[in-house]
Automatic annotation (TrEMBL):
Subcellular location(s) of the protein: Membrane
Spans traversing the lipid bilayer: 36-54, 66-86
Keywords: Membrane, Transmembrane, Transmembrane helix
InterPro entries hit by this protein: RDD
Membrane association type: Multi-pass membrane protein
Predominant location category: membrane
The protein, known as: RDD family protein
């Protein structure tokens, strides 16, 4: 397995293990099985249970095709919709414990998932040979859609994963200070905590200061109203996030 170093906005590299080609193929096959299951169920309901097949008899070829496209539409948009809703995963990826992430360290957006979906048309050309070759020759096992969207697929089976580093022990009577932290994602908080712990370890005050200012900017906080040190501020931000999202459970 190869590693990918995701460079954050604070110029700190966080290493992840890229998902293997085998893991990605298995995830694809699992998702494919789900799609096939849906198509079988959808057509069975349409033709056998609801007996709506007669509606197609009076339609021309193009109208019939439009009906079939409408029935199978969920299969077509399956990847982009579920990756958007499940933060870079589909059921297949979730079962294989892999996830789509941005190489620049930020949470992938709907636009990124959409680009990956559009390029899937090319990646699946010749029974998927194009995408397979791209993953083999690319540095981070990226298919063309990953390269175009600036994403990679990482494995969550290793010690460093998307969510475990955001955990922080807090007391039951803990009172949060900054409710604005709910605007952050798990990926944002992982980056914040990883950067903070690394900076504290080597006493890199410049990184701590930049990180503090970045958080204040993102959450639109009043800088002058924060009556604490930058280290105390970041520590509270981490705890507040865990408090509001229940990550300490």
């Amino acid at each position: 397995m190869s590693q990918i170093a995701i460079n954050t906005s604070q110029n700190v590299n966080i290493n992840f293990i890229t998902a293997s080609i085998g893991e990605r193929i298995l995830a694809y096959l699992i998702d494919g099985a789900i799609k096939v299951g849906y198509i079988i169920a959808a057509f069975y309901i349409f033709f056998s249970i609801l007996n709506l097949g007669y509606l197609l008899d009076g339609l021309d070829q193009w109208s019939q095709m439009a009906v079939y496209i409408a029935i199978t539409l969920p299969v077509s948009i399956y990847p982009v919709v579920l990756e958007s809703l499940m933060e870079g995963q589909t059921p297949g990826k979730k079962l294989m414990k892999i996830r789509v992430v941005k190489i620049d360290g930020y949470q992938a957006s709907f636009g990124d998932y959409l680009i990956r979906w559009v390029f899937r048309l090319i990646d699946t050309t010749f029974a998927g040979v194009v995408g397979l070759v791209s993953m083999i020759v690319s540095k981070n096992n990226q298919r063309l859609g990953d390269i175009a969207s600036g994403t990679a697929v990482i494995s969550l089976k290793n010690n460093i994963n998307i969510s475990h580093t955001i955990l922080e022990n807090i007391n039951e009577d803990y009172i949060p200070t900054f409710p604005q932290v709910i605007a952050l994602s798990d990926n944002d908080m992982r980056i914040i905590k990883d950067n903070y712990l690394k900076a504290v370890k080597i006493d890199d005050r410049q990184v701590i200061s930049k990180l503090s200012n970045k958080i204040i900017s993102i959450l639109k906080l009043d800088y002058d109203a924060i009556k604490m040190t930058e280290r105390q501020f970041i520590g509270i931000i981490i705890k507040d996030y865990n408090y509001y999202t229940g990550k300490d459970n």
